[in-house]
């Protein structure tokens, strides 16, 4: 597996993102809404860098199924969200790929009455974006390759890796 972003560089960048977010929210309470399941490690690391009142909430939005490496129909499950009316929300996602998922999530949370919605992605895949969307915070630009680690998976595996790696090509029988 080719390591694209080593663990120490991820740690440094998460520190930087935490400082930027803390400065921008200037002590105002925020609700960090993590997009399951890929955000979990990023979410845990990032919220520990925030010193102001922070509520954590989760939703599930997925367009990948099983061993698929291309997006399908998007499903949003928000049963774990609190009432967001009047809250300042920061959506935390693992990767900005086509932009369809995060743009739909932002619209969904605004419709739930959030006072403001900002977005933070760990990775921004270059060359795949189909929806005009600019995240408020982005960790790393990456090439158009399928990556795993630091919460990102392939068929439920590799989330535990402390780095971001390019998944090697699968044999034709496994694709």
Q: Which CATH class is shown?
A: Alpha Beta
- The CATH architecture classification is 3-Layer(aba) Sandwich
CATH fold-type name: Rossmann fold
- Count of helical regions: 3
User: What is the topology, as strand order, of the major beta sheet?
Assistant: 4-3-2-5-6-7
Shape: globular
GO molecular function: guanine phosphoribosyltransferase activity; hypoxanthine phosphoribosyltransferase activity; magnesium ion binding; nucleotide binding
Subcellular location: Cytoplasm
Keywords: Cytoplasm, Glycosyltransferase, Magnesium, Metal-binding, Nucleotide-binding, Purine salvage, Transferase
Protein name: Hypoxanthine phosphoribosyltransferase
Describe the structure.
The chain has a single domain (2-166), classed as Rossmann fold, CATH 3.40.50. It has helices spanning 7-25, 40-47, 100-111; strands spanning 2-5, 30-36, 54-62, 75-77, 88-96, 116-125, 137-142, 147-148, 164-166. The radius of gyration is 16 Å and the shape is globular. By secondary structure, it is α/β, with parallel strands linked by helices. Strands 4-3-2-5-6-7 form a six-stranded mixed sheet, with helices on both faces. It has a three-stranded antiparallel sheet with strand order 1-9-8.
């Amino acid at each position: 597996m080719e390591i694209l972003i080593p663990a120490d560089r991820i740690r440094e960048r998460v520190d930087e993102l935490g400082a930027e977010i803390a400065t921008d929210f200037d002590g105002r309470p925020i609700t960090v809404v993590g997009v399951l399941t890929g955000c979990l490690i990023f979410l845990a690391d990032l919220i520990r860098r925030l010193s102001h009142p922070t509520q954590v909430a989760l939703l599930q939005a997925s367009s990948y199924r099983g061993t698929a490496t291309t997006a399908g129909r998007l499903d949003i499950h928000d049963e774990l969200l609190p009432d967001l009316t009047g809250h300042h929300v920061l959506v935390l996602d693992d990767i900005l790929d086509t932009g369809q998922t995060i743009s739909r999530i932002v619209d969904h949370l605004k419709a739930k009455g959030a006072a403001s919605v900002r977005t933070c992605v760990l990775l921004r895949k270059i060359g795949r974006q189909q929806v005009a969307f600019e995240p408020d915070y982005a960790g790393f630009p990456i090439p158009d390759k399928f990556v795993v680690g630091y919460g990102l998976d392939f068929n439920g595996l590799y989330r535990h890796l402390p780095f971001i790696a390019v998944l090697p090509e699968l044999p034709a029988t496994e694709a």
